[in-house]
Amino acid sequence: MGSGRFNICHPRLCNLTLERSNEGEKGDVVAPQLMNLTIKYWTGIHLISSPNLTSLQYEDYLFPLEVSADLPHLEKVDICIHHCNVGADAHEIVCMLQKLHSVKFLTLNLEIIKILCSYVELISHQPSPFANLKCLEIYPKIHPDSEQTQPKVTTEVKNYFVDGSPGATFTMFSHEVCTPCSIFLGFYPTFLFKYSHCSLH
After folding, report:
1. Phi then psi for 122, rounded to 5 degrees?
2. How far apart are CA 153 and CA 137, in angstroms?
3. Full domain range(s) for residue 181
4. Considering only Cβ atoms within 10 Å of each terminal Cβ, which end of the chain, N or C, has fewer?
């Protein structure tokens, strides 16, 4: 992979993992049969077309995932953004969440909730986009610091997630509970690219 932008375009791609430790090339994903997508510390991925995606795991230090695809079959999403840029990322986070409207099981980290609570005007006049949500879980950082306090989740933020799904559960976990965000140990490879094809029927 050279400098610039790359494309991942494959009609039979079923599972895809992108992972790296330093900022790399930006890329577009166009995979009509993709069902499971994992992106860890690979900033600049743009999910353009994956209509069959059911599972998404995304983890990054700073930036939300850029999504323009319609994801009607999405069931499970796990998103962890370690250090949100308070003002700059609020709008991008809201845009990302709106694209996940079909999700049933959603896991977010506390930084995302804090951003929404700080910029509640971005969502206070919007209906909840989550019509199928069954479970929302919020986790703190795996290593608590002096800046991270358990925020009071505003009514507007709660309504944004659960008003469209009255039966959904909303759970916030404490620091004593292990989070789904992985620990950065400093020895990731330069990049990791895994994929598998869907079987032909």
Report:
1. -75, -20
2. 13
3. 5-197
4. C
User: Side chain identity at 43, as an amino acid letter?
Assistant: T
Average pLDDT in the 78-89 region?
79
Q: Nearest Cα to 112, choosing from 144, 157, 155?
A: 157
CA-wise closest residue to 20 among 41, 35, 3: 41
Q: What is the pLDDT of residues 163-201, one digit of tens each?
A: 999 899 999 887 555 444 433 323 333 445 555 556 555
Say which amino acid occupies 97.
L
Cβ atoms 162, 137 nearer than 8 A: no
pTM: 0.81
Of the candidates 173, 77, 59, 52, the one whose C-alpha atom is nearest the C-alpha of residue 130 is 77
Give the count of domains, the chain: 1
Classify 40 as helix, strand or coil: strand
Question: Using N-to-C axis directions, what is the helix angle for 155-162 and 110-118, rounded to 10°?
Answer: 120
Q: Which CATH number covers residue 177? A: 3.80.10
**Contact status, residue 54 vs residue 33, Cβ threshold 8 Å:** no
Residue pair 16/37 in contact by the 8 Å Cβ criterion = yes
Determine the Cα–Cα distance for residues 12 and 199; give it in Å rounded to an integer.
8
